[in-house]
User: What shape does this take?
Amino acid sequence: MEYIIIIISAVFVNNIVLMQYLGICPFIGVSGKVDTAIGMTGAVTFVMVIATIVTYLLQQYILEPLDIGFMQTVSFILVIASLVQLVEIILKKVSPALYQALGIFLPLITTNCAILGVAILAFQKDFNLAESVVYAFANAVGFGVALITFSGIREQIELSSIPEGMKGVPIAFIIAGILAMAFMGFANIV
Amino acid sequence: MAKKESTFGSMVVTLFLVTLASSAALGFVYELTRVPIANAKAAKKNLAIKRVTPEFDNQPGEECYKVPAGGDTIYFYIARKGDDTVGYAAETFSNQAFGGSLKLLVGFLPDGTIKETAVLEHRETPGLGDKMVKSKSDWSRQFEGKNPDEFLLKVKKDGGDVDAITASTITSRAYCDALQRAYESFKEGDKQ
Amino acid sequence: MKNFTKGFIKENPVFVLFLGLCPTLGTTGSALDGLAMGLATTFVLVMSNLFISLFGKLIPDKVRIPSYIVIIASFVTMVDLLMSAYTNTPGPNGEPSLYDNLGIFIPLIVVNCIVLGRAEAFASKNTVISSLIDGFGIGLGFAFALVILGSVRELLGNGSLFGLKFIEGDGILIFVMAPGAFLALGYLIMIMNKFRDKTA
Assistant: This one.
């Protein structure tokens, strides 16, 4: 039951992109086509879950015992950056097909604030390891739901006539705003 | 000046030096700010407690006991003046608010009468549910000076004594739920 | 001089380059929060530009990015520590402190694409003086964008500016909530586009 609440809350109620304003750059940047949106979601899910596990262990077994919590930001971002590189290298060797699909998105992920954000939030919420994993996965799904819905709408918008000054990024933000309003309707479900 | 060659040795040395310098600098700043950070945190807690309890001259943030309630813990801070206990501040919560969870601080007089209440954390809708916050409306003043033994902490729709916020019954119920939980734990803690 | 002014209009990181959007949306519920975030980012940007333009040439190419990240993260942590020590006092009616308002977006300055972007594209290739000016210019341009967005949202959503209330009652509340952030930024970018087309 706990887990279900975490999942619903992260995917719908406190959607990471539309309600918490994390991961906006890829949300605006790679949402032109549904295909790329799906690829990006895959890469984010992969890295977000692994990064949360590794940073949780780092926090629990290194930073806390040594009482150097103030090194959190430095160590988390270093771990995430090296992790992304590592995933890229391993993926290239082990599964070239998956690498083909996700490869170009991986370098972009280091500076995706959703990854670091979720790692820090999972720690701030005092989750245990299992809850942290569920939380990270649910947030990745939430990211995917928002991104894929959004890119679908943007593909349609391309075909319709919109005012000159609105073309491109401005209309994308207006759509995101309306989408966020729709997500506010989920406010009371947990 | 030519770029430095990337050999294994130079890379390891560079990264080591950079992280060493970084942790040394941070350790230094951390030592400098440790006391001010702790002070700011303690002052923040005492300031919040001051809003709901009678005047005190101790550091209630440091005198605290816990009562388990509803799958979580409620913290009670003791306010003293001289040798007398003048009140208690309870950090209570409800998970039934419109936006999920709601955190309140409730001040009790020693006999269990509510002195004042304050919202610590909420995610209610601006303009509707957030009228429970004192700076937005006087709604939460109806609890002041009431003893939950005589004043039933339920909205009138549910047969209680509390006037609900217009169009925000869920928020009002959650507020009552949090207060009721604090009061029950207060009596629980009193027995011990 | 050109290095300084470019950050405001022509190469404004938010309105033109669309970088650093998360804090742009997340910390502009009021003009003051936006200003604080802008200044914190400016500090990190100037300091990391300074250090990278000083020592950048000593860092081997292959470990360039991780070294930059560590340097940037150190300054971010310093800002975080200092802000939690000196800006963590709640308001007289228990309003959340500045530190609480900015919350998770302070550590997240480290992944703000603007900071790493300037380190890589400018500071590693230019002199100390011009890197400092670049850091100030881009940082204040970012702060400028945040203050504008924060002012618009605070004015429409709450009827106040920098906490000074001059319209009674509630505003158009949607603007202080998440959807309003997206809408306000969309319209601001549109107006900025129009403005630039005219001057160009």
Chain B touches chain A at residues 19, 22-23, 26, 30, 98-100, 125, 170 (CB under 8 Å). DSSP finds two helices and five strands in chain B. Residues 152 and 161 of chain B are 5 Å apart (CA to CA).
